[in-house]
Amino acid sequence: MDSENKPKGPSPHYSLYQREIFKRGGTVGQFPHFSIHPEELQESTKKKLSDRSYFYANANAGVGWTDQANREAFYRWRIVPRTCVDTNVRDLTTTLFGHLIPAPILFAPIGINKLYSPLGELVPARIAGELGLPYCLSTVATQPIEEVARVNDEAASVRNESNSVHQYDGPNGGNAKSPRFFQLYMGHDDEVTLSLITRAWMSGFDVLMLTTDTWQLGWRPKDINLANYTFYHQGTPGNEMGLSDPVFMRKYGKDLERDQGKWIDYSVWHGKAHTWDKVRWAIQEWKRLSGGRPFVIKGIQSAEDARTALEVGCDGVVVTNHAGRQVDGAIASLDALPEIVEAVGDKMTILFDSGIRTGSDVFKALALGAHAVMVGRLWVWGMSHEGDVGCRHVMKSLLAELDITLTVAGYPSIQKNVWRNKDALRFNPSGVPPMSNDSDKF
């Protein structure tokens, strides 16, 4: 807590954010405007948003058992604290696809951000740039690819100008840019797909992430109750990516005038599954376009699929069940992680997604073998409260909690002491966490 006697290390002292909050409260009576306790934050988000906006990001498949399984899985793994360890300097850094980043946390791709803030994706893109963390842009964005890239670059430049100690380099040389990934929902018009990924590459998105678990939306009763498909409602956001794409508009612009759902139904959640042969085509085209930059497949829950992804040429996988929003009654992502790590962990980069709420959750996923984790609902809840300010507060709090967890648990380095260290965890096969908050309740 002593900010004057902190030895400099490879990572920022994220833990000092807690002290900063304590001091503001104690000296000038300034307190956070909302709770960052995950359950309380989720509950207060319901009060900030309309039902349509809230349930777009929070409605689960079926009765929500997969979402619950994600949280129960984290509860069953317990951290083993160590004592009398020098943790005065912590190293949270990691290298991801050639990018040295300050912490193993990415902004997960979530669509239609204008439901949560008028600036939409510009909010998380800006905060990711400020923090130096990778930002993943969804195909279902409500801001053009190029504008998101500009805002992300501007924030990263300000960060580097104000911080001469902690700068993080990427494969493009220099450190003004923050890592950017583009998440692709691949339609069945190859010309439109190529237009999207070309725009992404030209805008500095140098990792392509293909989502394969959402050819169509899962069965979501809470959305059904509200007929909650924003793309069909006049005057609501959702078609901006299509509207900003010259190829899509040239070919289908007139159709979009007659049918507002043309973009989403034809190019995104089209209900017509691709196969591994089409994944091979997407890899080939991205590698040709980008000069060999990484291709990641998102939606992996089985070791067999992970091995197939490796065979067809993927550089990484995202272990995820789409946060419980696609298959009700599916296995928890954290339960799938160890066998996927065993199958391909020495040959591929493994990202983890689905259920991350706390710094200790991040610790556990890394200890089980993930190279980094993706966070989605947390930053959506934050930006829903106060835009940039809320998004920043939630993500800085998560970084602080991870930093403090390393300190008090006795693990000074992510790479040396936490990553793939099952001795840092114990598995408790029985018991479930108290589920005091039901994300699907009105």
TrEMBL record:
**Is Translocase a UniProt keyword of this protein?**
no
**What positions does the domain FMN hydroxy acid dehydrogenase occupy?**
30-427
Q: What organism is recorded for this protein? A: Obba rivulosa
Signal peptide location = none
Please give one Gene Ontology molecular function term for this protein: FMN binding
What is the recorded name of this protein?
A: L-lactate dehydrogenase
Q: Which superkingdom is the protein from? A: Eukaryota
Binding positions for FMN? P109, I110, G111, S138, Q183, T211, K298, D353, S354, G355, I356, R357, G376, R377
Keyword entries, A-Z: Flavoprotein, FMN, Oxidoreductase
